[in-house]
Design goal:
- Two copies of one chain form a homodimer.
- Chain A is an alpha/beta fold.
- Chain A folds into three domains: 3-137 and 254-314, 3-Layer(bba) Sandwich (FAD/NAD(P)-binding domain); 149-251, FAD/NAD(P)-binding domain, CATH 3.50.50.60; 334-424, FAD/NAD-linked reductase, C-terminal dimerisation domain (Enolase-like, domain 1, 2-Layer Sandwich), CATH 3.30.390.30.
- Chain A has helices spanning 12-23, 38-43, 45-62, 75-99, 149-153, 169-180, 200-213, 300-314, 355-359, 387-400, 404-409, 419-424; strands spanning 3-8, 28-32, 67-73, 103-106, 110-113, 116-119, 122-131, 135-137, 161-165, 184-188, 216-218, 223-229, 231-236, 242-244, 246-249, 253-255, 269-270, 273-274, 287-289, 328-330, 336-340, 345-350, 366-371, 377-383.
- In chain A, helix 1 packs parallel to helix 4, helix 1 (12-23) packs parallel to helix 8 (300-314) and helix 3 (45-62) packs across helix 6.
- The longest helix of chain A is centred in the first third of the chain and has 25 residues, at 75-99.
- At the A-B interface, helix 3, strand 3, helix 4, helix 8 and helix 9 of A face helix 3, strand 3, helix 4, helix 8 and helix 9 of B.
């Protein structure tokens, strides 16, 4: 065998698996068809966070009493900074893999049989294969030439008028950011409400802020066609046509298994996903699949975790996934975070009762802590600035089996957003 | 008896004790000589966080590639917003106390005997007394007419040139904020380094950023005199004189026990502090002291916690303080947080390895996790943006007896600053 493990795809899961396996002295080959680091680092969560951060700061200053700001944003210059920032992260990841002895080949990996992967017309054998080929945006027949996450995050001019098809987390994050940067924004969602990924309480908090920002939300609305000739014309059922200079399509993502040679190794599928067990192992015992392609929520941190579980199993340490405290974070305004599960019993504290939020001129949102019969922490939904940074407290509480009083009695620094968790937990 | 409990001082500890006791059906009197909410809410942590937030946003945009900003800050207008924001917090606190049945009297409370407190020439008896009179800035003989925290946070014009005497957390927080708002800033510290409250690693991270910002730091330097005639002239040993339009004195705080009538009840002191046991009880068994006046770190969240402990004991529930995961947070650049204790063994991850920080154009800092012989989490020192929001994770880990692997295996959302804790904990 040429390698112990061949990893197809260097995204969040792939590079983390490589790092982990190489640290355990496995001989690792990573095959990457585009950019090292995959979708999240290059075209997804990292660039979008940079854009959102920028838009939030501008909006905060524009709405702060006593402040008058004028600014000029050279988005082309900013993109250069962003690309260099992303390059540092992906470069560090690639260098770290190589420093631990992993080999990286650029090209399209294809499974030939259960121990063989080809790339650039050469075949490599390995004892194990990990598939981490990620996902691609859903495209709709007949709708062409629109923007997807890659194009919108690489844009070099703020759109004058932006129509977003799909009110899930990507659409709402991007829509909010461009609205704060000056675009006129329309979001068209087929379902009855935006952010169907999260419970209604949380999406309503965002809804209210979107309205305040002047974003036009059309729910229960179906796009019939998008035509481009110069500008775009978007035809929506029961609505007037919208014209726009940019149309973003964000109606979901599907696993990326095209031309992967799945059938050559006899790997079972689960719909469009590769079927895996709790070890992240496919029906072919030496082949694993992790991250978006393997089902479950399409989140980079889920891919990280999958990578760890698959790697441990490959190293002979029996490890099974446990997603019970998997967080979901949406970088909207307010920022939405959720982990664990909902229960009938909960404590809810309005953001208005959190002094740190008020110092940031923010008061829309809440802390909602779910608990079980015995007061044990079961989950939380938080709509608050920086909620992404405090949700792991709840994850740890769930994992450690802590109860409301444990959280209330842990001294939280004042003034912080995280105090809201403590205060909400008071019995 | 007129009341079950008389609380002298409505600061962080006082109002929280009132809320807690009133909830437990105790008849409570709160005596406040100035503003409800005390130093932290009115003149300390809350206004300073608002100012720091403003300065950070401006600095972030001014240094962001591709951005050009011009702004005009009408500090007078901003102060009105800040005062109204503070008013909401203090108003809510006062209303909440009253809604639960507590009585509030404005005036200077004086202890007459172990069951009697006078205010506005009237005497009130109660079964218990809680002293929460807080602290005041240290003043130096012969140095007059300078700014302290109250004056600097109420200022209505950005100083052209600001000299800060004392490089502790107040001096460095305020100095950084005004530098980012355009002031020329000099910080004079008697000790060998700034931020002597925290370990050297942490203060060095701030030191480097202060230098980048162009703040002049003079350590091991003693101020000999401050003269005011129009501008200030500050004479410093072994240095040239400094002139300034504003001089901030921040050389520490002392407990506030003046005219409190301590001696009338025979309460023991511990130096300038009121001596208390683990129940926050003084030597006089029905009199408690909490917060700054009772010793220990002068932090609002310490006062909150003391208030809870004293209240529980008054309600007959034997409760003893346990400060082992008490956090300390300094809102500098980078933001500094510490909890627990240092040990010989630690894991350290540079901020450069944290993608979320890079999206914020921040890379100076680190995550340092201390652990004991068995890998149990003992403490942490973090220099990172928003570290105040993530330090409670460590507090919870300490309280729950978790180890490095527990933290590493708890899925943290990506991309966040809090991921740095998980990544640092990898074994």
């Amino acid at each position: 065998m040429d390698y112990d493990v061949t990893i197809i795809g260097s995204g969040a899961g792939g590079y983390l698996a490589a790092l982990h396996l190489a640290k355990k002295k496995k001989k690792v080959l990573i095959i990457e068809k585009e950019k090292f680091g995959g979708e999240c680092l290059n075209y997804g969560c990292i660039p979008s966070k940079a854009l959102i951060e920028l838009s939030e700061s501008i909006n905060y200053l524009e709405t702060m009493p006593g402040m008058k700001i004028n600014y000029n944003l050279d988005l082309n210059e900013w993109q250069k900074w962003k690309n260099s920032m992303v390059g540092k992260i992906t470069g560090n990841a690639e260098r770290a893999c190589k420093a631990r002895g992993a080999n990286v080949i650029y090209g399209t990996g294809k499974i030939i049989n259960k121990n063989t992967v080809s790339v650039n017309n050469k075949e490599y054998t390995s004892q194990f294969i990990i598939i981490d080929t990620g996902s691609v945006p859903v495209k709709i027949n007949g709708i062409n030439d629109v923007y997807y996450n890659r194009e919108i995050l690489g844009i070099e001019k703020i759109p004058k008028k932006l129509v977003i098809i799909g009110g899930g987390y990507i659409g709402v994050e991007i829509g909010t950011a461009f609205r704060k940067l000056g675009s006129e924004v329309h979001i068209v969602e087929m379902k009855e409400r935006i952010l169907p990924e999260v419970e209604e309480d949380l999406s309503r908090a965002v809804d209210r802020k979107l309205a305040k920002l002047g974003i036009n939300i059309m729910t229960s609305s179906r796009v019939l066609s998008v035509k481009k000739s110069g500008n775009y014309t978007v035809k929506i059922e029961n609505h007037d046509n919208l014209t726009a200079d940019v149309v973003l399509m964000s109606v979901g993502r599907i696993p990326n298994t095209e031309n992967l040679g799945i059938e050559n190794a006899g790997i079972d599928m689960d719909g469009k996903f590769i079927k895996t067990d709790g070890h992240k192992r496919t029906n072919v015992e030496n082949i694993y699949a992790i991250g978006d392609v393997s089902g479950g929520p399409m989140l980079a941190h889920k891919a990280f975790y999958d990578a760890y579980v698959a790697s441990e199993n490959i190293c002979g340490n029996n490890t099974v996934t446990d997603y019970k405290s998997m967080p979901l974070v949406i970088y909207t305004d307010p920022e939405i975070s959720f982990t664990g599960k909902t229960t009938e019993k909960y404590k809810k504290l309005p953001l208005l009762a959190n002094p740190r939020s008020l110092t940031m001129n923010q008061s829309d949102g809440f802390f909602k802590i779910y608990y079980d019969e015995d007061g044990g922490i079961a989950g939380a939904g938080i709509a608050a600035p920086r909620s992404s940074e405090i949700i792991s407290e709840i994850g740890i509480a769930i994992e450690a089996g802590l109860n409301l009083n444990d959280m209330f009695l842990t001294i939280h620094p004042h003034p912080t957003i995280s105090e809201g968790i403590k205060d909400a937990c008071e019995e």
